[in-house]
Amino acid sequence: MICLLCQTKKYESDTLLQVLGLKKVLERPICDDCNNQFAAIFTSCKGCGRHQGNNQLCTDCVRWQIDGKRLLQHRALYQYNDAMKLFMQRYKFYGEYAIRHVFNRKLKDLVKSRDTDMVVPIPVSYHTLMTRGFNQTIGLFENVRLTDLLVTIKSSKQRQSKFSRYDRLNREQFFMIENKTAVIGKDITLVDDVYTTGMTLYHAADILYQAGAKNVKSCSLAR
Ligand SMILES: [Zn+2]
Ligand SMILES: [Zn+2]
Asked: Ligand 2 centroid to 51 CA: how many Å?
């Protein structure tokens, strides 16, 4: 096999059947060396899932609370370290779509552990969909039943604007909901590829709460 991350040939892990093309080799598209570079999150901030020594709220989450947000109780599988950055780069920007399978099972278990009525992916903009060809989050959570009801109405470039944090939180709108009645009274898990500042997820949560969602949590591959 050729590892989709480091692009190194790893002949030793191919069985004879794989070499002869009689068995799929894509079940494990990443070599053990690369796999060992990912850093799992064990103990984390109970608000945003950030890797830290205890589960107390971090300063960012305290600030979200001051801003009046209900915390997302975010959970992520891995830290956003160099290996994860490389993974995202190959997946999103080099369009290595086969790599999406690597964390499928673990992400499915993570979503299951949240135990909510509905799983909603963060959408990508029309422009991103046209240039990349896929929504990276839907690919990562491919084996999870997703309800794809958010639509992006503002691109990420427009978001990096001159607005203050207050304006970005309270005046800008990133998303709209296609079927508002579907979320009324529902417990919802939002899923994304990476939690960076939380801004995107909190915007999505806001619009779901406005439409009548009962509770909104979130999870992602990396934090
Ligand atoms: Zn590798
Ligand atoms: Zn936090």
From this structure: 9
Residue 38 vs residue 23, higher pLDDT? 38
Distance 36 CA to ligand 2 centre (A): 26
Alpha-carbon separation of residue 133 from 4, 129, 130, 147, 199 (angstroms): 19, 5, 5, 19, 24
Rounded to the nearest whole angstrom, what is the distance from the C-alpha of residue 8 to the centroid of ligand 1? 6
- Over residues 144-173, the pLDDT tens digits come to 999 999 999 865 555 555 667 777 777 677
Dist CA 155 CA 176 (whole Å): 13
Mean pLDDT of the chain: 89
User: Phi, psi (5° rounding) for residue 16?
Assistant: -60, -40
Q: How far is the CA of 32 from the centre of ligand 1 (A)?
A: 7
pTM of the model: 0.88
CA of 16 to the centre of ligand 1 (A): 20
Ligand nearest to the CA of 7: 1
Domains and CATH numbers, the chain: 1-36 (no CATH), 39-222 (3.40.50)
| Residue 1 clears pLDDT 90, i.e. is over it | no
